[in-house]
Write a structure and sequence with these properties.
The protein is α/β, with parallel strands linked by helices. It has helices at 20-40, 86-103, 127-140; strands at 63-69, 75-79, 82-84, 117-121, 145-147.
Length: 160
Amino acid sequence: MAMSAGPAEDGAPMSDINTTPLVDVMLVLLIIFLITVPVVIQTVPVKLPSVVFEPTTTKPENVALSVRAAPDGSCEVYWGLTKVNSSELIDRAVVKLRKEIDKQGGPNAPGLELPEVHIRGDVNTPYRCIGGTVFAMQRAGFTRVGFISEPPAGFASPRL
């Protein structure tokens, strides 16, 4: 901060901006926000789950679904490469789950591992299409439903 104590030698008006009031106001605002933010932000204390990156392991018994919106606004669901409607989706899912449970020794078999559903949804698909597919698969009895996404460019998967 510079201060002038007399007329300018060249007769030109002083054009330096005095920033002291601006800095004072900013410091006061900073102190106010530092005090008020913890008071304003009130949340219910919950323990959030820690997320660990798990690479998807593709097993032959898992179900791969693709969901996208049709040009007319309806939803298209593909089981593998076969297009299915909602009733066919539930019927195929129930049959698939029953076959897998029977193959592993029945519903009370020790170490029963149910297949998973992996859903690939187009980025422009309305949520009702994705949500309806998840609901249909859960209604059929699948308990593990996951979403396949594209990792960001340059993302390196961890070596296992």
